[in-house]
Specification:
This protein is an alpha+beta fold. Helices cover about 55% and strands about 15% of the residues. It has two domains: about 180 residues, Immunoglobulin-like (Sandwich), CATH 2.60.40; about 210 residues.
C-alpha cells in the first residue's frame, strides 16, 4: 500500500512538472517575419534555453523532449559566463505568407569566441537544414565567411519553423546574442561596422608607426614597451571582434584556442613594463617596482601555462587583467601625488580604458548584460587611451627637451660666471705686479675687465 501511494505521488509530481513546462513553453512568443521587418533582435520572450552539462544529448533527443528540457531565457542575451556546458537555445519563427517577402534570412550571433555553433532548422519535426560554423572549423568551410557567426537560412513564406542552436566553448565564456536580418540590410549594416572598425584599427596602427619613429629617434625603452603594448592590444581586439579569424588565420582554427589568452597576457605584461619605464616608478617607491615585476611574472606564467597545457585559463586571465586594471591606477596616482608629470596623462588615459575593460570583463563573467554598449566600451576606451598616452609621450619629449635646454642654459651661465671670475683674478694679478712706473695702477672692477692704467697727481686732487 505504501509503495502504491509513493508511486502515485511520483506520477503526480511528474505530471505537475509536465504541466508547468508545457505552460512555460507556450509562453514563448514566436518571431514574426513580415515585409516590414528588416532586422529583428531576439529578446527573452522569444528564446528558451537548456544547459546540457554533460554535453550528451543529440538534436533528436532535444526535439523529442523539448517541452521538458527548455525553460524561458531570463535575459535578452543568453550569457552564462565561463562554463563547460553545452548550451541549447530554441525559438520559433513564423514567416508571413507574402510573395514579396525574402525567403532568405541571415541568422547572426555577435560573439565570435565559440568552438561550436550548430544551427538546426526544424519543420514539422523534420530537420530541414543543418549548419556547423563554430571556430573549431576553418573559416572557408562556412557558407558565409563572417567575423561573427552569420548563416543564411531558407525560410519559405507562410511556414513555421523551430530553430535550435547548440553552442559550446570549453572553459570559456558563452554568450548568444542573436538576430535575424534580411540580406540587403545585413550587408548595409556590415559595411557601416567595417568602416567603424577600420577607423579603430587604423588608429592603433598609426599609433604603432608614430611611436616606432619616436623609439628610433629617442631610443627610450618606454616607447618600445608602448609599441608592444599596442601590438598585443591590436591582436586582442582582432580576436574579440572576429576579424583575426576572418582575415589573419582563417585556415588555422587551432590558433583560436590560444590567441585570446596569450594576447591578453602579453598586452598586460607589456603595459606593466611601459608604466614602469614611462613614469619611472622606482623614483617614487621601490615597492611599486616589486609589485609591477611580480604581476608581469604572473602574466608570463599564465601565458606559458596556456602554451604548454590544455587548460583554457579564460577565467584566470580575465581575473588577472581585472586585478591589473584596478591595482595599477592606485600606484600611478601615488606617483602623481609625488609630482610625476607623466602619471597625470596615464591616469587620464587609463580612466577611460578601465571603464571599458571592467565592463567587458564583467560581461565575460556573466555579471553584466551583453549589449552594444558593454561589448564596445573597451574599444572606445582603448582608442581614447592610445591617443592620450601618445600625447603623454609627446609631452614627455617636450618636457625633456625643455629640461635639457634649461640645463644647457645653466651650464652656459656657469661657464660665463667662471670666465668672469678668471678675468677678475687675472686683473687683480696684473695690478698686483704692476711695474714701478705705474705705482697707482688699479683695476676697473665695475666692468670686471683688467684695465691697468697710469694715474697722475691730478687723480689725487
Amino acid at each position: 500500500m505504501v509503495l502504491i501511494q509513493h508511486y502515485n505521488l511520483i506520477r503526480a509530481v511528474l505530471a505537475l512538472c509536465l504541466i508547468c513546462s508545457s505552460s512555460i513553453s507556450f509562453g514563448v512568443t514566436a518571431v514574426q517575419l513580415t515585409p516590414d521587418v528588416e532586422e529583428l533582435e531576439l529578446q527573452r520572450q522569444h528564446i528558451e534555453m537548456f544547459e546540457d552539462q554533460g554535453d550528451q544529448l543529440t538534436i533528436n533527443e532535444i526535439t523529442t523532449n523539448n517541452s521538458i528540457l527548455f525553460t524561458p531565457a531570463n535575459e535578452d542575451v543568453i550569457n552564462l559566463g565561463h562554463t563547460d556546458s553545452s548550451i541549447w537555445a530554441h525559438f520559433k519563427v513564423t514567416v508571413a505568407d507574402d510573395e514579396e517577402l525574402s525567403q532568405t534570412w541571415v541568422l547572426e550571433s555577435a560573439f565570435p569566441l565559440l568552438q561550436r555553433f550548430d544551427i538546426f532548422v526544424v519543420k514539422n519535426g523534420d530537420i530541414q537544414q543543418h549548419f556547423e560554423i563554430g571556430y573549431a572549423l576553418p573559416m572557408m568551410d562556412r557558407m558565409l565567411p563572417h567575423r561573427f557567426f552569420a548563416q543564411p537560412l531558407k525560410l519559405k513564406s507562410g511556414s513555421e519553423y523551430d530553430i535550435y542552436i547548440n553552442a559550446k566553448r570549453a572553459g570559456g565564456s558563452v554568450q548568444l546574442p542573436m538576430k535575424l536580418s534580411q540580406p540587403l540590410h545585413f550587408v548595409y549594416k556590415e559595411l557601416i561596422h567595417n568602416h567603424v572598425f577600420g577607423l579603430f584599427f587604423g588608429i592603433l596602427l598609426a599609433m604603432m608607426v608614430y611611436n616606432l619613429f619616436l623609439f628610433f629617434s629617442v631610443g627610450n625603452r618606454a616607447y618600445f614597451y608602448y609599441i608592444t603594448y599596442i601590438g598585443f592590444s591590436f591582436l586582442t581586439f582582432q580576436t574579440f571582434t572576429g576579424f583575426g579569424f576572418l582575415l589573419l588565420w582563417s585556415g588555422a582554427p587551432l590558433v583560436n584556442e590560444y590567441v585570446t589568452q596569450l594576447s591578453a597576457c602579453m598586452a598586460s605584461v607589456s603595459g606593466l613594463m611601459f608604466v614602469k619605464h614611462f613614469i619611472k616608478t622606482e623614483q617614487y617607491g621601490r615597492y611599486i617596482n616589486t609589485v609591477i615585476n611580480s604581476l608581469a611574472a604572473v602574466g608570463l606564467i599564465l601565458g606559458a601555462l596556456r602554451l604548454s597545457t590544455d587548460y583554457f585559463l579564460s577565467s584566470q586571465v580575465s581575473t588577472y587583467v581585472t586585478i591589473i586594471t584596478l591595482v595599477m591606477p592606485v600606484f600611478v596616482f601615488h606617483c602623481w601625488l609625488k609630482g610625476s608629470r607623466p602619471a597625470g596623462f596615464f591616469l587620464l588615459a587609463w580612466a577611460l580604458l578601465i571603464v571599458g575593460i571592467v565592463m567587458f570583463t564583467l560581461v565575460l563573467l556573466g555579471l553584466l548584460p551583453s549589449n552594444a554598449i558593454t561589448n564596445n566600451a573597451i574599444l572606445a576606451g582603448s582608442a581614447a587611451e592610445m591617443l592620450l598616452l601618445s600625447l603623454g609621450l609627446a609631452d614627455r619629449i617636450n618636457f625633456e627637451r625643455k629640461a635639457k635646454y634649461s640645463a644647457l642654459q645653466e651650464q652656459h651661465k656657469a661657464i660665463v660666471r667662471l670666465k668672469e671670475a678668471e678675468d677678475r683674478l687675472m686683473c687683480i694679478g696684473r695690478c698686483t705686479v704692476a711695474p714701478p712706473a705705474c705705482p697707482t695702477a688699479h683695476c676697473c672692477a665695475a666692468r670686471w675687465t683688467p684695465c691697468c692704467r697710469k694715474t697722475t697727481h691730478q687723480d689725487f686732487r
